[in-house]
Amino acid sequence: MNEERTIAVADASTEITKKDLNKMFWRLQLMQLTTNFQNMAGTAFCNMISPVLKKLYANADIEAKSRAMKRHLEFFVCQVNCTGLILGVTAAMEKNTQEADKDSISSIKTGLMGPLAGIGDSLVKFTLVPIFGSIGAALALEGNVMGPILMFLLYNIFNVGSKYFLIHWGYEMGTGLLEGDKTQVLIRRISNAASVVGLMAVGSLIATSVKLQIGSTINVGEQSIAIQEMLDMIMPNLLPLLTTVGILAIVKKLNGKHTALLILATFAVAIVLYMLGILV
C-alpha cells in the first residue's frame, strides 16, 4: 500500500468517463468568475481540470499532485467557448503522456490558446453575437416581445452547446486535434462562411433600422429637386450607410474611448439638424 502511495506518476490505466468530462463542462460555465491580473484564467483552468486530475492522481504522492496543480495554475487566457476544446485536449494529454513528458502539456496549452482565442472572438463575439442580436433587434423594433427572448435562446443554445461539444470532441481527438490540414481548412471555411453571414446580417440591420433622410430641396428655376430622391437614385439607404461607416471610423480612431460621449454628440447633432429642417 505504501509503495502505491509513493508513486510519482498519474495512473494511465484510469478511465476518463463522460461524467468526468461533464464535471469540467459545468465548471467551465463559471470560468470568468476568477479572472485576475496574475494568471488571468489560470485559477479557473485549474479548477476546471481538477476532476480529471483527482481521478488520474488518486494513487500518486503529494509531490506529483502538487506538480499537476501548479502546471495548470500557470498563466492562461482564451475565449470561453474555445477553452472547452483546450480542456478536452489537456485531459487526454494528462491521461496519455508519461510523467517526463508532462511539460509538453503546458506547451500545447500555450500554443492553442492564442489561435483559438482569435477564432473564438471572431466567430462568437464579432459574428454570431451580432447575427443573434440583429435578429432579436429586428423583432424588438417591430414591438415583438419575442425579440430579446429569441436572442437569449439562440445565443445560449450555441454558447452552452458548443462548450459541451468541444470538451468531448477535444478529449476524443486528443493531441492530434488541429494538426491535420483538413481540420484547419474546415475551421477556416466555417469561419469565413460565418463572417459572410454576419456581415449580411449587420448590413441588413443598418438598412432597416438606421432611419436618416434629408428634407432639404434644391430649387432650379420653377422646379425643386429633393436631395433625398437624388441620393436614393444613386443608392438606396446611402446616407444611413455613410453615417454608420463614419461613426465606426471615429470609434476606431478613438480606440473605443469616449463612446458614451460620441453617442450623446450624435443625438445632439441629429436634433439640431432636425430642428433646422435639414433632416426629417
From TrEMBL:
Sequence intervals crossing the membrane: 75-93, 131-155, 193-214, 234-251, 260-279
Keywords assigned by UniProt, alphabetized: Membrane, Transmembrane, Transmembrane helix
InterPro entries, A to Z: GatZ_KbaZ_carbometab (IPR050303), PTS_IID_man (IPR004704)
One Pfam family of this chain: EIID-AGA
Entry keyword annotation includes Cytoplasm: no
Top-level taxon: Bacteria
Stated name of the protein: PTS system mannose/fructose/sorbose family transporter subunit IID
